[in-house]
Amino acid sequence: MPTGPTQVERAELAPNGWSKDLLRGFKAGERAALTEVYRLHAESVALLLRHGFSFEASGTRHRFAGYGSGFELQDLLHETFRRAFEPRSRASYDGIRPYGAYVSTIARNLVLRSFRAREVLFPLADGEHPTAATLAPIDDGPSPEREVHDAEVRELVAAFLASLDPEQRRLVQLRFVDGLSQRDAAEVLGLGRQRIRTSEKQLRRALLIYLREHGEATLIEGVVAAVGVPALLGSELLRVLDEVTR
Amino acid sequence: MSRPSKLRRVIERELVDGLRPGRRRALVERLRGNARERRGWDRAIAALRVLEQRPVSRAEIDQVERWLFDDLAAEGVVEAAPIGRGRGWTWLGATVATLATAATLLWWVGADERGPAISAGDAGEVGETGELASRGRHPIARPLGLEPVCGTPPRPASDRGCELDELLGFSVRLGDEALDPRAAASLVAAPLHLSVFGIAEDGEVRYYLPNPDARELPALAVTNRWAALPVSVRLAVNHGPGRVRVFALASELQPSTADIDRLAAALAEQPRASVDDLPWHLRLEAAELAPLCRDLDRCASAETEFLLLHTDPARTRP
């Protein structure tokens, strides 16, 4: 049965749920504290940027569909936390509001501001100017091109996995499918952690080379980075992984 | 196996090993707003997401963590990275990045307004030119400027070349209005030592500063003004007709002749730079540059060239 924090533990927590030490370190700009805060909240912000969000503008409800481009997502995630960790921002954070909502608001504002910037770049020909909202794409689900692209990337990754030796496949399974830490994967495989790090690096480099060698001619131009939608992953890739790791 | 484009190689380097912060910023700046060029990046991230079966891969989040803390450290918001920080790819990136030798892969990388001594530019303004650029008028800010002059009174060698019976001198400047304040502050911190050398068409190295008669290098401070270097080279000695590439380096450590030989050997293999190339000290491998530029923000480089002509017998001396 799950148990919540004890009374003593609660006394050690700041109102936002962080430990008081973490909040103090965060306000003081200590690297370890900022790193912990980033790791606590980066994924949720990244998912917000990946899947998008709804908002209202000019009395109309709109939806930002999320970044299809991995680069754009990373660029904005970086900018979000850079701003959130500025001394002024840290000083103004009260430690009471949930930090996840606080930093997500920064991310949302940055997204909407980027659309406002595009208004300036692309005014309408008839003299009307689009609002930030009208420039936000409406998410009608994956387009046929995107679906084709997704399938091609999946095929490429599956073919890449099939080209690996058994030890590499096992590493992929443990680290990326089962989600084990490097330490735990090292224990399971009976290898040193450094060996795991090196193997992961080799694996990633090999994947990029494989993608470059096999993907350039087949991937649809201009429809990139659309994978990652959970519905498109999961069972099929697991099946492929099962096949190649057997 | 096809050879990847320079851009693709640099992207892969950043994704696997991690580039040094200045180069990473320059890469990001270049890809930002250029959807066509970042396709390779996006494809790689897409594949990593499939590999990890996540809508956003841990690898990309870790990569951003490295960017974030590199930048916060550069801004003085947090202390510099301890060795072995981070996790997963980030750890690898940070570790390997310190050993990275990716400089030569980055010839093409555009500028970064936040990077050391580099500012963003409009790609439309960038074009091939023999002027080379150390003048601060081009899209990439270059804090060190170098201009060969020759004749009496001195004229820019770019006007009509130099003749073998003339003296060669140099004008230099350290500082650039396009420098961002952090990069400028880093250069201002203490005087830098200026060395200048050339590579003739036959590959021979010409030692201008230091040279056997002048081993002490002038200290160079950020002034934004051009100044004449205290060196005068009689071109009739050790020079022959042809094109001479000239390289200048402002560094904390004084280079030895052996250092200059090593730099010249590396630079001789590189094609002539154009205005959209990074300053040469950012293009060299770390091993080639070490130990002169351990802190890249405390180094600046410039390159140019001049044409050395046969003496014109018809010329009338003033």
UniProtKB/TrEMBL annotation, chain A:
Residue intervals of the RNA polymerase sigma-70 region domain: 161-205
Molecular function via GO: DNA binding; sigma factor activity
Record keywords, A-Z: DNA-binding, Sigma factor, Transcription, Transcription regulation
A Pfam short name: Sigma70_r4
Keyword DNA-binding: yes
Biological processes, Gene Ontology terms: DNA-templated transcription initiation
Keyword Cytoplasm: no
NCBIfam families on file: sigma70-ECF (TIGR02937)
PANTHER family: RNA POLYMERASE ECF-TYPE SIGMA FACTO, RNA POLYMERASE SIGMA FACTOR HI_1459-RELATED
Family: Belongs to the sigma-70 factor family. ECF subfamily.
Name listed for the protein in its UniProt record: ECF RNA polymerase sigma factor SigE
Organism: Enhygromyxa salina
Primary gene name: sigE_3
Automatic annotation (TrEMBL), chain B:
Transmembrane spans: 89-109
Keywords, ordered alphabetically: Membrane, Transmembrane, Transmembrane helix
Taxonomy, superkingdom: Bacteria
Name of the protein in its database record: Uncharacterized protein
UniProt lineage: Bacteria, Pseudomonadati, Myxococcota, Polyangia, Nannocystales
